[in-house]
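Regression test attached.
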Amino acid sequence: MGSKERILRLKDETRTKILDAALNIVQTEGWQALSMRKIADQIEYTAPIIYEYFSNKDGILLELTRRGYLMLAKDIREARDQHESPEDKMEAMWIAYWNFAFTHKEFYQLMYGVDMVCCTVKNSMAEAENVGSMLGDVIESLFEKKPVSDDDICMKYYTYWSIIHGLISINLVRPNGRTTDELNQQILKDAIKGITLSINS
Amino acid sequence: MGSKERILRLKDETRTKILDAALNIVQTEGWQALSMRKIADQIEYTAPIIYEYFSNKDGILLELTRRGYLMLAKDIREARDQHESPEDKMEAMWIAYWNFAFTHKEFYQLMYGVDMVCCTVKNSMAEAENVGSMLGDVIESLFEKKPVSDDDICMKYYTYWSIIHGLISINLVRPNGRTTDELNQQILKDAIKGITLSINS
DNA sequence: TACATTTGCCTAACGGTGTTAGATTATTTA
DNA sequence: TAAATAATCTAACACCGTTAGGCAAATGTA
């Protein structure tokens, strides 16, 4: 009875097709245009079929969020592993974060609620903790004094995160601002260096 | 023919009632729950009536955005005028900005696209420029070297804005994070002081 | 092979949304 | 009082997320 597996594989394929279709619609028409019927059209089914693969629309968004965090974690991990000193790691990781936000704009919007409909319970997700712990680890290694308290790490983490998330949000929501890419990069790097320097001052 | 004016006044009143109703719904049920029919219910009319006061739903959001910027500008102006030195002004203004975001959470969400449906063309609005120019002026006065280039101001402006907007966004989207108010304030003030110090370093 | 059961997929519908057209009622003007 | 204008409503359109029920094909069983 190998047909069982083949059928399961087919089911998994259409599940993936649903996610791909959703992503495709979002990338071409934006989050507002995403509808169950459009997804169904694209995979050549009718809308109710989707509910056999996801409990509802939020289920689809949740899965896409999960995948987004996995991609982001991969990018940040690779950036980390290409440098030696904590300072270089830190800068590379945040730049990877920054790049992710713009090369996967839709994911970032979904993951961080920038100009997006809230898909409710997206806080306290395991995949998000992963990114956080990696960044937290390197932040800890930036401190010269030991031991480093959780509050110290948390504070610096939020400081980094805030300025970068802020910059990204501003640029995502207002792409017509008069900030060039060069200027943004300059602000970003200066801010990172500044925070990094401030850690042991 | 004083009735003309009375009628105009009545029209203006219902226009305000529409905005108040919209705000009331948003404050109690969130942006997702805002609908034309609910607004109409609250002002004891039917939905099509609203289209004689606003071209569409986005028109309502746009007007609320405008009013939000006016309120924010007022808060920031008052904070500025209660201090003497540029450093104190800067901190007070950004703290006013911060406070506005949380005491008028719905406005901030609308104005800065945090966890919100996009109401499209909300960039390049006159009222937004107002806030920007005020902050820019004080930033310019922080520089010891003269003259200060527009790029210098723009960069520092974005640096300030980013970290604060980022912090706010994080806290708005993830209110269940383990950051206390004290910690947020600490991060905020430290970041402001840091950026301010970095201007003449 | 014949029947019963499960599966896959669809149509139709419910209640909601923003928005528009047309009819109806009330008010003002001549 | 009659005509004209303004104010407001009802009904409808096309969309949305979601659910219920039915049809037809595939599968399991005798």
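Expected vs. actual: identical. The helical segments of chain A are 3-29, 36-42, 57-81, 86-103, 105-112, 126-142, 150-173, 181-198.
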